[in-house]
Amino acid sequence: MNLVCNQIKNLTEKKYVLFTSNCSTAIYLLLKSLNLKNKKIIVPVNLCYDVILSIISSGNIPIIIDTNDNLGFSLKDLKDKLEYEEDIKVIIFPYLYGNSDNFKSVLKLAKKNQIIQIEDIAGSLGGKIKQKYFGSFGDYTVGSFGKGKIIDMSGGGFIATDNRDVFLKVRKNYKSLSKFQLKNKLIYLKSGEFLERILKTKKKNLFTQSKIKYFSKGFIYYKRFNKKFYFDLFQKIKKIDLINRLRNNNSKFYEKIFKFDFLKPITHEKGSVYWRKNFILKKGSSEKLIEYLNQNNFYSRKYYPPLNHIFPIYKKKMVNYEKNYKKLINFWVGEELNKSHIMRARNNIINFFNEKNKV
Asked: Could you tell me the CATH number of the domain that includes residue 132?
């Protein structure tokens, strides 16, 4: 485990690292260990909903920010929230889809307003701004090795910090959590089904406080990993630059051959990594196209539904992201992908629109 700790320390330029069961648990532990209660935590609207569960479970209040057209933080909305909201203590910057986008501007605003910065590199491990890795800029860093992440170990996360006192509190609080059991996994699966129900029925009031407390058990728990887990993780992190180079090459190939008038690519900043390759359909909804591609055995998704569509605490529309979410489509870019698969996706898209035009 020490070898892997040193790798994370080098990537994040932090002195202390604690491995956790997953990233959601890491966020929960960090907020609890910072002694925050009823404070406001800023996150983007297009974030995995389990982060919201972690924030609420920690006794704090998530505040969501609309996106810009790169699917990153809207600086205008962020400035508005900082001006009018009280008790904002933390901002979580998740490098959405692996893109650094306007991170430096967000970081500058956070520091100016004396807000704690947590870099969430769950979907962006190994990305860089110039020569510095993501996770080495803010006060704290959290990450994940869960399913579908840059390094997929089917589980595991971490917290990195320079603050020894916070590290010791995190470690103590982690050991006090209930140990992982099969029921945690079953609750996690149920939460996914529950989310699908909300999105289909559009009844976000289903996510009550009692449901939030129940489903949090599917994400927040203590789990130990064996020596093989850490050995395999060490070997994969050694190859992080190569892994990301292959992902980025796949993303470039998508953009090269998807020269369609009806698709706008989301291009990442130099040094970033692609967790997914995103496109925006210029007209209409992307749902039918996604459905068609999946029926033809090619991975495509929207990711992530607007948080204000899920949780009843959010009344205000997130105008820009809701507009783009209707048209959003993203593609898998993992290193195991090859160019023939991407060409097949291109042919499927052409077939879809040819069939649509015949109707």
From this structure: 3.40.640.10
